[in-house]
């Protein structure tokens, strides 16, 4: 649908697509649909706006567990979540930026709250910064819900994230950026290389530049960690980053596009390391990385 590769759909592209797909809408109906999709009234439809509108809001079962999580965080019952609510629930004392003195704990907590504000900002929400309303919290999970097919998986994700059940509270004092006692750094890198836990390995091991002696497995793990920190968890987020990197719009990434993307993503690898990772991604040896190859390597094997 995105004929000019602008990473968004203007009215002409949207109208043409509705005609191409022979959906039977009148001109007036197409204009109403366009206005519905274009939540931020920018005159163009972004991919996140498109998938959110197509999938619609969460069903009642998902909404119920999201509101349960919100209620747990809103400790004082004020109807919104602020730093005082999450202090003690979300512990950031061992965050590498706090340990190094770059940021205070309150700054990290503020950034955490901003995560929930981003999804709702495109709907022109007027809530103050660093205060998460119930609507913002729900809209954040509406966007996540759009890329999760299974209700049971969504419920498990919410329970594990916010410790809503007794079973999910086991090990709740563990920190995502703290290595398990007795585990060697090399052994943990190897054992988690293709696991979904790669994104929560020791953040203390993540530095601006990758070790010059890092092997292929370590380079790939570093790439996954850093992409995950930039929000590349859902399928839609990975697709958006791939499409942005695909400068010529041919549906694949050549070596130069891949190299440029690694620089733009601030992965911290030198040219030789990028070339090594490119060969890992190019599973069929075609000299280009397709979206399926990109997705497969970023997400890793099934746990």
Describe the structure.
Strands 1-2 form a two-stranded antiparallel ribbon. It has helices at 11-20, 27-37, 47-55, 60-73, 83-86, 96-99, 105-121, 134-145, 151-162, 185-191, 216-229, 235-245, 255-264, 271-281, 291-299; strands at 8-9, 45-46, 80-81, 132-133, 252-253, 289-290. It folds into three domains: 8-42, no CATH class; 60-169, Orthogonal Bundle (Recoverin, domain 1); 185-299, Recoverin, domain 1. Helices cover 51% and strands 4% of the residues. It contains 15 helices and six strands. It is globular. Helix 4 (60-73) crosses helix 8 and helix 4 runs parallel beside helix 9 (151-162). It has 303 residues and is mainly alpha-helical.
Number of domains as seen in the coordinates: 3
Low-confidence stretches: 174-207
Q: Measured on Cα atoms, how large is the radius of gyration?
A: 21 Å
Q: Mind telling me which CATH architecture of the largest domain this is?
A: Orthogonal Bundle
Structural class: mainly alpha
Binned strand content: under 5%
CATH C-level class of the largest domain is Mainly Alpha
What is the subunit organization of this protein?
single chain
Q: Order of helices and strands, N to C? A: EHHEHHEHHHEHHHHHEHHEH
CATH superfamily of the largest domain: EF-hand
Strand order of the largest sheet: 1-2
Distance between the termini: 34 Å
Number of DSSP strand runs: 6
pLDDT average, as an integer?
A: 78
Largest sheet: 2 strands, antiparallel
- What spatial form do the alpha-carbon principal axes imply? globular
Give the % helix: 40-55%
- CATH level 3 topology of the largest domain: Recoverin, domain 1
- The number of helices is 15
């Amino acid at each position: 649908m995105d004929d000019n590769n602008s990473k968004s759909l203007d009215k002409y592209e949207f109208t043409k697509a509705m005609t191409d797909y022979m959906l039977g809408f009148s001109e007036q109906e197409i204009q109403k649909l366009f206005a519905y999709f274009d939540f931020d009234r920018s005159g163009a439809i972004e991919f996140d706006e498109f998938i959110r509108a197509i999938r619609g809001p969460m069903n009642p079962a998902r909404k119920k567990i999201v509101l349960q999580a919100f209620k747990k965080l809103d400790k004082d019952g004020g109807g919104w979540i602020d730093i005082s609510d999450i202090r003690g629930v979300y512990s950031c004392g061992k965050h590498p930026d706090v340990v190094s003195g770059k940021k205070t704990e309150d700054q990290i907590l503020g950034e955490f709250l901003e995560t929930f504000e981003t999804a709702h900002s495109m709907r022109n929400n007027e809530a103050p910064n660093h205060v998460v309303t119930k609507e913002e919290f729900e809209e954040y999970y509406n966007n996540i819900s759009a890329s999760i097919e299974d209700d049971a998986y969504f419920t498990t994700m919410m329970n594990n994230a916010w410790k809503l059940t007794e079973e999910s509270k086991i090990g709740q004092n563990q920190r995502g950026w703290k290595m398990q006692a007795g585990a060697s750094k090399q052994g943990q890198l190897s054992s988690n290389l293709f696991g979904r836990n790669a994104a929560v390995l020791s953040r203390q091991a993540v530095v601006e530049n990758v070790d010059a002696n890092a092997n292929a497995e370590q380079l790939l793990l570093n790439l996954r960690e850093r992409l995950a920190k930039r929000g590349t968890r859902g399928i839609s987020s990975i697709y958006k980053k791939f499409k942005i990197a695909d400068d010529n719009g041919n549906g694949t990434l050549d070596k130069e596009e891949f190299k440029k993307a690694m620089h733009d993503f601030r992965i911290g690898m030198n040219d030789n390391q990028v070339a090594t990772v490119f060969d890992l991604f190019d599973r069929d040896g075609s000299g280009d990385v397709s979206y399926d190859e990109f997705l497969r390597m970023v997400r890793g094997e099934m746990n």
